[in-house]
């Protein structure tokens, strides 16, 4: 094969590869739009419509601010302001679990990564095993334990089980094992720092990206948790918003015809409640994405 023929052959292969690559990208984009973007757009537009307009109007025709205000009033007037209480409960549970998670997970990951003690490897193996167990499988034994100490129905019955976050321990273990120079810690010890001072003054400032990542994952898991508070909280007054959505669903005549009455809600109101339930996670992600990217790439290279 001559040099010219080889060049033409290589060019044709690169052209074919480029065409194939563009086709794959186009297919992925189309699938994403069909299965993710379009439903989200419809959901947002549904909050601006009346129940009748949601059925007879074009699915992607915007409604009006007046209808949005009416849906808002109906939602937050449901059961004398129950939705406001549910959102507040979600914030309480998520932030409470977040604080305890950081207090417990960061020192635990640091200790397993940079200190030697008995049963260290066993603890790491147990952490990995607990990570693999579905959360729903742990709800029954947790319920029985908390029932013995009389915590069922209290905020602690939701906060405490979500506070001990094995994934956060493992993330910090990986970070401290790979991204914190041990020579730096040893130098701090030579300068007279105690182990607590080494941790608080040297290791923690270096671990800011992974702390942000653990905090984000903990907040999202706690905010979106449904089954645990559904089992632990017998009264709707303590429900988080994710569990409260089931009450709204049961009060929507489109899903439960027997619910028609003064306290019923319409489909646009239910759509608005769904948007509100995911909005805090979206806001946290938008403000914390710089730290999240830093945390996800942390530990990728060994110092």
The total count of strands amounts to 0
The helix content, as a percent range, equals over 70%
By DSSP (H or I, 4+ residues per run), the number of helices equals: 14
Secondary-structure-derived class = mainly alpha
What is the H/E string?
HHHHHHHHHHHHHH
Pfam families: BPD_transp_1
Membrane topology: Multi-pass membrane protein
Subcellular location: Cell membrane
Domain ABC transmembrane type-1: 87-288
Description:
InterPro entries: MetI-like, MetI-like_sf. It is found in: Cell membrane. It is a single chain. The chain is mostly helical and 303 residues long. The protein has helices spanning 3-46, 51-56, 65-76, 82-114, 120-132, 135-148, 156-163, 166-178, 182-190, 195-206, 208-223, 227-232, 241-250, 267-297. The relative contact order is 0.12.
The gist of it:
With 303 residues, the chain is mostly helical. It is 75% helix and 0% strand. This is Carbohydrate ABC transporter permease.
Identify the notable features of this structure and list them briefly.
MetI-like; 14 helices; transport; 0% strand; Carbohydrate ABC transporter permease; single chain; cell membrane; mainly alpha; membrane; disordered C terminus
């Amino acid at each position: 094969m001559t040099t010219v023929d080889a060049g033409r052959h290589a060019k044709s292969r690169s052209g074919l590869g480029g065409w194939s690559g563009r086709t794959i990208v186009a297919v992925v984009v189309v699938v994403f739009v069909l299965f993710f973007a379009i439903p989200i757009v419809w959901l947002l537009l549904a909050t601006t419509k009346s129940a009748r307009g949601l059925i007879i109007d074009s699915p992607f025709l915007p409604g009006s601010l007046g209808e949005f205000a009416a849906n808002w009033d109906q939602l937050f007037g449901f059961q004398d302001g129950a939705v406001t209480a549910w959102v507040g409960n979600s914030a309480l549970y998520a932030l409470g679990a977040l604080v305890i998670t950081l207090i417990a997970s960061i020192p635990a990951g640091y200790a397993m990564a940079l200190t030697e003690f008995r049963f260290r490897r066993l603890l790491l193996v147990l952490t990995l095993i607990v990570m693999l167990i579905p959360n729903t499988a742990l709800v029954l034994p947790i319920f029985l334990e908390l029932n013995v100490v009389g915590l069922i129905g209290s905020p602690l019955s939701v906060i405490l089980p979500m506070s001990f976050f094995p994934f956060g321990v493992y993330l910090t273990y990986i970070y401290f094992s790979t991204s914190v120079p041990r020579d730096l810690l040893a130098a701090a010890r030579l300068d007279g720092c105690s182990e607590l001072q080494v941790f608080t003054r040297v290791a923690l400032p270096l671990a800011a990206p992974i702390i942000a990542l653990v905090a984000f994952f903990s907040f999202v898991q706690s905010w979106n948790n449904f089954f645990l508070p559904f089992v632990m909280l017998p009264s709707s007054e303590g429900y988080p918003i994710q569990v409260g959505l089931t009450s709204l669903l049961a009060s929507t005549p489109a899903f439960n015809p027997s619910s028609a009455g003064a306290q019923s809600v319409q489909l646009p109101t239910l759509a608005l409640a769904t948007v509100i339930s995911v909005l805090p996670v979206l806001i946290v992600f938008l403000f914390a994405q710089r730290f999240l990217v830093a945390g996800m790439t942390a530990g990728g290279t060994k110092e």
